[in-house]
Every structure is written in structure tokens, then in C-alpha cells.
């Protein structure tokens, strides 16, 4: 019986890896071209175009942050597979309709709705977290991460090539088509043996944190997810401008910027399963703290880089640190959260990541505008230090959780 259960969670993992991959690819193949798509909708001055592009990017994450806890509560009552299908079908419809947007306000409105119905990757984590054997949780979370990251790597390349030939609307149609694939894969190949809590048990756990023994650790992971996301996405608004400055305006700046942007993802793709497995052996706490220290040591030297090659090497190392961070925070939450609350906790985590995706780029834009591009890296180093302090405080004030994580 145990062997049959093990085989099913593995089948679910493979199916959800495909779902994560196409979700990451679809989302990333359209996002880089939002400003160019908007510029075709009217003759906007630079400040207005930047404002609309920022709104179109951020409203998705804002609505996601607001709605995710509600979906998480519903998932703990109805199961995670229905939430996966809700997210996949919702994004199939909204992404496809976005390609038909007649003006910028319809585009922004559809992006807002898309955020409210998104959350496929987060629910994939939650479903697997409720099924995976504890001793394999780190490696499994790392493997799932490679699906999303792999999709995010190929998405911009495919989207850029297609958009250059057929126009900026086509990547949105492709995004919708890929989410249709995710819907079909989830419906036919993901099987969940969900047993909802009812009666007294359900009322006793109205708060997602009610049944969590080491609540400080879980809160630290949620805050950590937000800070990690803020740090890693903070460079997005200025990377092409900084690369242009390093290249002194000569050469193919767009291509070079794309390579620099992709390097962390390549490193994460390679390192995530290995570091996840390492966490299963030595404990996720050690991997997380080491990853944060390494992350700080990588971000700080970026302030002093003088060539694109130096920046590229450091960005690759950032990807290794990312592989030691986000999957490990998922693992720690898995180890410390009861099954009847896992979807809600993961939805709070998704909300925190969405907030980080909004706050990080906004802070970076402000710092770069007031000071210089290089000071963005000092800001991200400070975020990593704050993150390290939060994690170490949580573990030191809850000594019992350290032991449970180390033994897992």
C-alpha cells in the first residue's frame, strides 16, 4: 500500500512539473514585451508609457496578494486539484483575452483579473507538500522549482522570437494555449486523495496557524519569501539600463541584457534539486542560512562591477543562492504545517511573494532614480541581511523547531 501511494505522488510530481513549466513559460513569454505592446495602443509620452507599464505589471501581483488567502482557505476545504484547475482555466481565458485588448485600460483590467485567478505553481507546491514523504520533501520541492524556472528561461526567448515576427499579441495567445495544456495535464494525470476536515475539527482550525507548533518559523519563512522575491526582482527595472552603461552604449544591449537576466535561472535550474536533497540530509535550516549568507556576499560586489562579464558571473552565483532559498522555505513550511492548513499557509506565502514582486522593483526604481543603478545592489544586500536576521531570530526563539527540522 505504501509503495502504491509513493508511486502516485511521484506521478503527480511529474504532471505538476509539466504544469509548472508551461505556466512559467507562458507568463514569462509575454511580460517582457508589455511596454512595447502598450506603446502600440497609443502615442504616449515616456512618463505615461512607464506608468501604464508599471500598472500592467503590478496589478497582477497586487490582486494575487489580496485573493490568495481566500483561495487557500477554499483549497483546504475542497482539495488542491480543484484550485489547480481554477488557476489553469482562469489564466487560459484571461491570457487569451489579453491578446485581444483594444486599449491599455482593458489590458490593465484583464491583468488584474488574471492575478485574482492565478496561483497554479503555488497550489502545485501545496498539493505535493501534502503528499510527499518527509525525507524527500527538500529534493521534491527543488525539482518542482526547476519546472517553473525552466519555463521562465525559455519563455522570453520563444516569446521574443515570435513577437518579432508576428507581433506582440501572439505571445498572449500562446500563453493561453499553454495554460490550456496545463489544464488538461492536471485534469487527466493529477490524482488527489483529499479528505476534508469537518465538524469540530474544522472549527478548531479556523486560523491557518492554529495547529502549527513552531509558528515563528513559519512566519519567518513567509517573511523570508517576500524579502527573497523583493531582492531577486529588484534589478528587473534597471538591468538593461545598467548593462547599457557597462557597455558604453555599444554592441547588442538587448541580447546581452537577456543573457544577464537568464543566468540566475540557469544556475537555479542546475542547483535547486541538489540543494534540496542536501537539505534533506543536513537539515533545511543550515541550507537556508548558508544560502542567505552566500546571497549577501554575491550581491554586495555587484556595486563595484566594471564589466558585463563580472556582472554575469555574479548573477549566475545569485541563481545558486536562489536555489538554496525559495525551495528551502517551501520545505520548512511543509515540515511545520499540518495537512489541513497547508494550502492556506502556502497561499499566504504566495501573497508575500507577490508583495515582494511589487515592492522590490519599486524600491529599486526609487533608489536608482535618486542615486545610481549601483546602489540598487546595496539595497538588495540590506534586504538579504534583514532576511538573515529574521530567520536566525525565529530559530533561536524556538529551539524545538531547530531539532525537528534537523531530524526531518
Automatic annotation (TrEMBL):
Segments forming domain Major facilitator superfamily (MFS) profile: 12-399
Record's subcellular location: Cell membrane
Membrane-crossing segments per the record: 12-38, 50-71, 83-100, 140-164, 170-190, 217-243, 255-275, 287-318, 375-395
Presence of the UniProt keyword Lyase in the record: no
Pfam families recorded: MFS_1
Keywords, alphabetical: Cell membrane, Membrane, Transmembrane, Transmembrane helix, Transport
Keyword Nucleus: no
Chief localization: membrane
CC terms in the record's Gene Ontology section: plasma membrane
Domain of life of the source: Bacteria
Membrane topology designation: Multi-pass membrane protein
PANTHER family from the UniProt entry: MULTIDRUG RESISTANCE PROTEIN MDTG
Name this protein carries in UniProt: Major facilitator superfamily protein
